[in-house]
Amino acid sequence: MTICPLCVEAEYHSRTAPGLSKEDKEFWKAESKVDRQIIKFLNPKFVIYDNDYYYLPDNFVEPWEEFVKYDYAPRPKLSSDMGRCRHGLLPVDLEMDEIHFICKKGWDQVVQK
Prior knowledge:
about 110 residues; mainly alpha; two-stranded antiparallel ribbon
């Protein structure tokens, strides 16, 4: 799902132009600070084959990237099914589809938060 940059910009200005309260902005900054560090572990360019990597579904990653980038987006929660189909399988072909994944260190921090 691609988000229209014009809509995002309009939404951002509609939320910030009237002004979020100073307390709300400080709260968002504190909440998103840790996530901005964790998101650096997402989709590493170089995969080390001895490490563990975890799949993150699009329905978590896209809102998570919005949360880190914009002060109006709520922090998404990981669902217990992690985007699995009704049979408990991942709805992607790990060899063919472009997926989001994160290393164990990043995963531990996502789950902890």
